[in-house]
Amino acid sequence: MARPKTHTAEVAERLMECALEAVARDGIGSLPLRSIAERAETSTTAVYALFGNKEGMQRAVLTRAFGEFADDQELIEVTDDPVTDIAGLGAHYVQWAIDHPRLYEAMYGEALAGLTPSEELSEARLRAVARISDAVQRALDSGAFRPADHATVVVSLWAQVHGLATLMMAGHLPDGADPALAAWATIEGWFADARR
Amino acid sequence: MARPKTHTAEVAERLMECALEAVARDGIGSLPLRSIAERAETSTTAVYALFGNKEGMQRAVLTRAFGEFADDQELIEVTDDPVTDIAGLGAHYVQWAIDHPRLYEAMYGEALAGLTPSEELSEARLRAVARISDAVQRALDSGAFRPADHATVVVSLWAQVHGLATLMMAGHLPDGADPALAAWATIEGWFADARR
DNA sequence: GTTGTTATATAACAACGTTATGGATGGAGC
DNA sequence: GCTCCATCCATAACGTTGTTATATAACAAC
Questions:
Q1: How many Å apart are CA A86 and CA A48, to the nearest integer?
Q2: Cα angle at A125 between A124 and A129, to 5 degrees?
Q3: Contact list, A178 vs chain B (CB under 8 Å)
């Protein structure tokens, strides 16, 4: 009894791809709806029909970005040495951020202060650090790490890689600094015995 | 032989105060020149005469913010125990970020990816971590920290506090996590002897 | 076909950063 | 003291942004 929809999920996917590309290139701040819609061969109305508004589209882009980031983390094989796993996950974490600076910037920079997160966005965020969280739990269970609160250890390691990634992207890394060694020190800080 | 200037340094200061206030409240992204100029009782032209353009004004705001941040770091008294100093500086670092979330966000978030830094901005940035850098040097000299590259240790500790601050601001801190303990682990990671 | 309802593209609107414009200003020259 | 006129700056205009209103288009029911 009405006109059939043409703003389908397929159009949403096209829009999403164009938007993700634009954000990865120019950052989350500059995302002109007109050019995005034009590139996706539709009109700006589609954005409002499918994502609500610009902020909704930004949220969707960030959710997608977190998903791809989590996929990358999950490429790391799980071994029976949680400490090695943590080191590998950390290195991968930083590398992804370096490879996708604008995306990572948007994920952990402006996103927090600016737009209010949706349910899916929060979930996607959790998945991004799930592997590290798991590895820390195994390190604690195996006795490789001294007894400590799981959340505290996770935050310590997460802050380390997140901070390293951000500083490196910003060009703040002083000459001669070794990020891998820097991260390793934080891991060692949790060792049960002083093995160095 | 010409009309005297009214776009004086005093006007620049008024503009700066209004802009800093606006950025601290709404973030670096939303800084409407018209309303800033109106609040400073001048016109938008003054912004272009005194700061070049909006980006110049943003740079100036960030430089000022870094200055205030560095002032705060320098409030911490220097003792003869560098490790205690580092812990205190780190706690102060995180606290300032929590107290000025939009400012810190602007300083280390968008600023890097977006606008190109000026000379003064780069200097102001360096001053912000000068105290931590000094304390690390003393910790290395005194033998409290095991022999390591100064820049690497600085980056490790800096990344830790920066990461903690960012994650806390973003509400990413898991329940039960103790940021002070988390930071302390990174410090311990550099201890010469396993004193815990 | 006509009508009713929904969907969409287009055009209009307000706000933004930036640039042009034209009036205002006050010492220099007489 | 009067006229320049180089200089400065508030105002208005321009292009682009996100968003909303409007009018057209497309189908189902009668």
A1: 42
A2: 110
A3: 149, 152
Which residue is closest to B102 within chain A, CA to CA?
A113
Mind listing the pLDDT tens digit for each residue in A16-48?
Answer: 999 999 999 988 887 899 999 999 999 999 999
Q: Is the dihedral of CA A163, A168, A172, A178 positive or negative?
A: positive
φ/ψ (deg, to 5) at A145: -95, 145
Judge whether A89 and A131 are in contact, CB under 8 Å: yes
Output the six-digit token pair for A49: 């029909």
Considering only CA atoms, which of B18, B26, B28 is closest in space to residue B114? B28
Return all residues near A92 (Cβ < 8 A) that are at least 6 apart: A72, A73, A75, A76
- Going by the DSSP 8-state scheme, the letter that residue A7 receives in this structure is S
Tokens of A162: 């997140």
- Across the interface, do A113 and B101 touch by the CB < 8 Å criterion? yes
List residue ranges whose Cβ is under 7 angstroms from nucleic strand D.
A 1-4, 31-35, 44-45, 48, 53-55; B 1-7, 42-46, 49
Extract the tokens encoding B6.
């009214």
Between residues B6 and A50, the one the model is more confident about: A50
Lowest mean pLDDT across A55-59, A94-98, A172-176: A172-176
The chain-wide mean pLDDT, for chain A, equals: 89
pLDDT along chain B (196 residues), means of 10: 72 93 88 92 92 93 95 95 96 94 85 70 90 97 94 93 88 85 91 68
CA distance A4 to chain B (A): 39
What architecture is the B9-188 domain classified under in CATH?
A: Orthogonal Bundle (1.10)
